[in-house]
Amino acid sequence: MQEETVQPQSEPKSLEALLAEAQAKIEQQRDSMMRAVADAENARKRAQAEATNAQKYALERFAEGLLPVVDSLEAAVKSADTSGVELTLKQLKGALEKSSVREIDPKPGERFDPYRHQAMAAVPSEAEPNTIVAVMQKGYALHDRVLRPALVSVAKTLEKAAENPTSSTDSN
Fold first, then answer.
1. 95 Cβ partners below 8 Å, 6+ apart?
2. pLDDT value at position 87?
3. Would you give the DSSP letter of residue 114?
4. What is the rounded CA–CA span in Å between residue 82 and residue 76?
5. Cα radius of gyration rounded to whole Å, the chain
6. What's phi and psi for 102, nearest 5 deg?
7. 136: part of which helix (H) or strand (E)?
8. CA triple 54-58-60, angle to 5 deg
9. How far apart are alpha carbons 97 and 87 in whole angstroms?
10. Quick one: average pLDDT of 34-45?
11. Among 150, 140, 79, which residue's Cα sits nearest to residue 114?
12. Distance from C-alpha of 95 to C-alpha of 101, rounded to nearest angstrom
């Protein structure tokens, strides 16, 4: 008995099917690899941005803690005895500036900016509405982040006395 291995006619198609399956698997694995590379790149960029922000704002708490000292020194400078206080204030402000802490000190007439100013009162004024009339307390920013907004009074429109009929006098 001799066994003859006869290969059916469909074998070349089966090899083609296997080749197509292998190529599909390769394409799927290539796609998975590309996604993994993209995810790793995105994670690297996120980590780099977080590290940059952490470094940039590392002194935020320190700076916030120094702001009351600046306020107290400024109040003392305005009082009677200013012997060494002015020098101390100047040194402290210099240290804050080295740490990229900048004053937010708007001048009267500037536009109110809700991101940098906090309106404490709206006062009748002849100035244009939504402009600063007075600064009650300076604000401070670390780089581009506001630590404390400036406390300000904002102008609101005046009600004209001429519109009130009881204030006018008749001349006969």
1. 66
2. 78
3. T
4. 7
5. 36
6. -115, 145
7. strand 132-137
8. 125
9. 15
10. 94
11. 150
12. 9
Q: Which of 57, 156, 63, 154 is nearest to 114 (CA)?
A: 154
Sign of CA pseudo-dihedral 107, 113, 116, 117: positive
- Helix, strand or coil, per DSSP, at residue 121: strand
Q: What is the pTM of this model?
A: 0.59
Between residues 15 and 103, the one the model is more confident about: 103
Question: Using CA atoms, how far apart are residues 157 and 155, in angstroms rounded to an integer?
Answer: 7
Q: Locate tokens 């001349």: which residue?
A: 171
Candidates 151, 146, 156; CA nearest to 118 is: 151
pLDDT at 6 over 80: no
How far is Cα 130 from Cα 117, in angstroms, rounded to an integer?
Answer: 11
Give the sign of the dihedral formed by CA 123, CA 129, CA 130, CA 135.
negative
pLDDT tens track for 16-28? 888 889 999 999 9
Which amino acid would we find at residue 12? Answer: P
Beta-carbon-side half-sphere exposure of residue 151 (alpha carbons within 13 Å): 5
Q: Which residue do the tokens 């709206």 mark?
A: 122
CA within 13 Å, CB half, 91: 5
HSE at residue 106, side-chain half, CA atoms within 13 A, is 26
